[in-house]
UniProtKB/TrEMBL annotation:
Keyword Lipoprotein listed: no
Native source organism of the sequence: Macrostomum lignano
InterPro entries noted in UniProt: GBD_Hemicentin/VWA7, HMCN1-like_VWA, VWA7, vWFA_dom_sf
Domain Hemicentin/VWA7 galactose-binding: 210-289
Pfam families linked: GBD_Hemicentin (PF23560), VWA_4 (PF25106)
GO-annotated cellular components: extracellular region
Domain Hemicentin-1-like von Willebrand factor A: from-to ranges: 33-192
Keywords assigned by UniProt, alphabetized: Glycoprotein, Secreted, Signal
Signal peptide: 1-20
Protein name per the record: VWFA domain-containing protein
Length: 292
């Protein structure tokens, strides 16, 4: 399967809902939340090391100072899923991540959907929720509650999966697909040693305002692998993510037909990302490899 997700960052003003909630909370206006939902069972040791290293890099940037009002951490384990811990201090958030230790587990499904629910409840509108796990969901019955929260908070959920329970056709796995699609997120399947690299996606994706131009979920190969991307003058950052077996961005052309140069690129075995600043207004052309 190949999942195509396009994200454009806007320079327009934030919604009144964001401003109102920020004012009520005493936080600086026009900002949002960055949340990590992390599976802390024993098999996640390598993933945790990658997240810790990547978080250091992200939290040292101006992104967190200017655009993130607060940081949220939810730990998923059995039988307890921690309530969301929230801080406005990047250093405290890094300490929270550094203090995570993995333990327990044994049965593969985990209560990940509950962890996402806790994160969304604590988050500001238009927030970014990153879920790290190597197991399917034990609690798909909570999916509709999470979908309701996504609609209310207008937040994005990105799954970074380094495994599953061998049940990709089950409701336990499909819960992740439903949540990522409803939130205009993406479900990324990678190896455990690639988690640090995927943290660069967080740096690219965290922006003040965003709008989705196109979101395509394809399970079968066909001839429709070329897409028209309309870009207007309000768009300041264009990010294209393709995820799935054999995923690849074959080409991206600007409105003049010229191939894109100078873009940020990240390519992993099952993930291909391209991001560029100040795209020229007009119709861009994207060609992706067909799913394998």
């Amino acid at each position: 399967m190949i999942l195509l997700f396009l994200l454009a960052a806007l320079a327009c003003c934030p919604t009144a809902l964001v401003a109102a909630q920020d004012a009520a909370s005493g936080l600086a206006p026009n900002r949002t939340s960055l949340a990590i939902v992390f599976d802390t069972t024993g098999s996640m040791k390598d993933d945790l090391n990658g997240v810790k290293r990547g978080a250091h890099r992200i939290l040292e940037t101006e992104i967190t100072k200017n655009k993130i009002a607060n940081f949220i951490l939810v730990e998923v384990n059995e039988p307890v899923v921690s309530r969301a811990r929230v801080t406005t201090n990047p250093r405290d958030f890094q300490d929270m991540i550094d203090d995570i230790f993995v333990q327990g587990g044994g049965d593969c499904p985990e209560s990940t959907v509950l962890g996402i629910k806790y994160a969304l409840e604590a988050a500001l509108p238009h927030s970014y929720i990153y879920v790290f796990t190597d197991a399917s969901a034990k609690d798909p019955h909570l999916t509709n509650e999470v979908l309701d929260l996504i609609m209310k908070k207008e937040s994005q959920v990105v799954f970074v999966l380094t495994g599953d329970c061998g049940d990709q056709g089950s409701a336990a796995y499909q819960a992740y697909q439903k949540i990522s699609q409803a939130s205009s997120g993406i479900l990324i399947r990678i190896q455990k040693n690639e988690v640090f690299d995927i943290m660069n996606l967080v740096k690219v994706a965290v922006t003040l305002e965003k709008v989705n131009i196109l979101n395509v979920d394809k399970e079968l190969a066909d001839d429709n692998n070329i897409y028209d991307i309309p870009v207007d003058t309000t768009i300041k950052q264009l990010t294209i993510s393709v995820s799935g077996q054999g995923a690849k961005i074959e080409s991206l052309q600007d409105p003049t037909g010229a191939a894109v140069d100078g873009a940020y690129n990240m390519t992993l075995p099952n993930v291909d990302i391209k991001s560029l600043s100040q795209p020229v207004a007009g119709h861009w052309t994207l060609k992706v490899s067909p799913p394998m």
